[in-house]
Amino acid sequence: MRPLNLSHLPLAEIRLQRFLRHASFTALFCISLSITLLACHLGLRLVLGLETNPVPALKILSIWLAACTAWFALPASTQRQLFARPHLIPLVPLITLFSPLLSFLIGEAMFAVLLLIALTGTIRLLRHATFTGKEWAFLLCVSFLHALIFFFWANADQAYYVIGDAPLTFVTNYNGLSGTTEFAYSGTLHRDTYFHASIIHMLQKWGAISTGLDGLVPVRYHIGAHLWFAGIGRSVGAEPLLVLPASILILIYPATLFMCLVGVLCLRRHLPGSPVFYVITTVVFVAIANAIAQFISIYASVTAAPSILVLLAAFPCLVHASRRHLQHASLVPLLRNIAGFSALMSLLKIYTGVYYGLAGGY
Q1: How many Å apart are CA 236 and CA 64, to the nearest integer?
Q2: Can you state the angle between helices 191-206 and 224-236, rounded to 10 degrees?
Q3: What integer pLDDT is reported at residue 153 of this predicted model?
Q4: How many CB atoms sit inside 10 A of residue 126's CB?
Q5: Residue of 286, 231, 227 whose CA lies nearest to 262
Q6: What is the pLDDT of the chain when averaged over all its residues?
Q7: pTM of the predicted model, to two decimals?
Q8: What is the pLDDT of residues 39-61, one digit of tens each?
Q9: Which of 104, 193, 289, 342 has the CB geometry, 3.0–4.6 Å to 189, for a possible disulfide?
Q10: How many angstroms separate the CA atoms of 342 and 346, rounded?
């Protein structure tokens, strides 16, 4: 399929349509990545003979699909208004990602709302998927290979399963990605994983900030991320030990890449004809960052991984506020931005909020 001829449209409409085409490519790339990771996750469990219930993972995939396509589900007038202020665009998928928090008010009905957003957004997204054959080949092949590399070479599989008598790796034995029922039953989970999963469970079942070891005695901890995972659990109707590994693998890692790509789209003044170059550049950049950080050690933290999503979505807003400061010599918008996002990130992970505050101060 060849790209549409937009030469007869006004310049502003041409830019919007080109942005929508690039945004659809980015969304489909990350959706394909997530689907491949889901297939690896379920397939390996079946091969190893482990009990496999695909329903929670498929529901979490639907939440991710809603976040990726939320922009396209918006009315055309709203899209044009946001396109005039592109620094706000990353907030659309971010808000959708964190919308399962509303399940504390409406329960599993929140999943039905997200499913409707996913269906509406996907149908509208496909209208803009006017890619060439080479672009389709790149999208499918690179996302597939990238998922396999992350899952197997980066040892994401070992964060879920004990294969044979292989010793537990650092990631396997330490944090969020090791939160599975198999490790819990065998008693090989790290105490941090039990700690985080117990808080999520108490929030999900009782709405209490507690581990449950001493009843409902509260614990002093930044529980923003735990509240989010509990919201996902309520939305999909699954326990924390099922929600944690599936969310981090199927949702958080693709979302990290997606937020980077959306940030690039929003910060670029002139988009190239093909989205392939900036996508492959961003994928390589994220892969290098993961390698420096020992691949999935970033995503193994229950609290750090969600805070990074907020950090990436907030950067275009920080750039915009900095530009306004340079143009108008007013510190108020910049300070408001730093204070608001730093506080939000600190609820998820304290040092992420500190990093953002330092970046804004710099």
Answers
A1: 12
A2: 60
A3: 65
A4: 13
A5: 286
A6: 78
A7: 0.84
A8: 888 887 777 777 778 888 899 99
A9: 193
A10: 6
